Amino acid sequence: MHKYIDQKIAVKHNNNLKKISIGFNSAIAAAIFLGFTPIFGKQAIQEGFSPLVTVALRTLLASLFLFISILLLRPKYLCIYPVGLIGCALAGILNGIGSLFYYSALGRIDVSIGHLLYMLYPIFVAIWLWLDHQPPTRLTYLRLVVIIPGILLLIKTGTKPVDYIGVSQMLVASAFYALHLPVNQRVLYDMPAPTVTLYTLFAMSAVVIPGALIHTSPDGFWLNITSTATSAWFPLIGLSLVTFLSRVLLFMGVKHLGGMQTALLGLGEILITLILAFSWLQESFSLIQWLGTGLISISLILSAIDKNDTSKKKSGGWLSWISSSPIFNKIE
Which of 118, 75, 149 is nearest to 298 (CA)? Predict the structure, then answer.
């Protein structure tokens, strides 16, 4: 009897380790792809697309790429329960609003400074999860304490005057992006990552496309698309592809690790963005700014020993209404 119980415990332990490994690898891969996002976005804007047209087109194309992939390869992933659909819609609306602010800010400030401000989102994630009855561990607090001075070092040592409108827009984008993670985390308890990604992207499209049309007018929107040089489409297609890939990987990380852990691991994307901004966009960085990246790297190393498990379903909390029927637990 004891031997049977020990075997069950060992199997459960191995399954948990496997899930953690999948979540960790997915979060890291998502961070790498996300690191390319501001680079391609900035290039598309510099080549002629307006910021809001850029975000509208990349979200629409990423949605189409994912929908076609699921339809051809795993059509069962199109199934979703009603409350889960509402959760995805809410997450997509929040992320869509954040995207409008993000790309508006990207049109005003440098990629390096803008994305560093955006990287404050783990702080907002910690706040949202705390409100959802999921308090961070002490080590998570320590990692946040390490992150904050690292980001401040990178921001305060810039040589250009600060565009406060752009900074404010990026901080709003960070808060909205952070809020959509715990919302999606609730849905991901029961649904596979591609399903959640697809319906979240659909909801994002329903926000960013009207936002771009209202801001530029339908005629201006179409004129911007048709009058922009062909060279602008290359970074836009790249932006759409990395959005498609990073979103699936991001939600796989959230499913197996939880929103807080995925958010902190996702900070690795800033290292990719900084390197690309330095080598690709010829933005410059001081020695103190690189010291800031070192502090962020320390936080990422600490993530390997942080035991904060937010991937398990929690009772209560302001997001507890997002739950499903047990029949959907088998959609994997």
Answer: 149
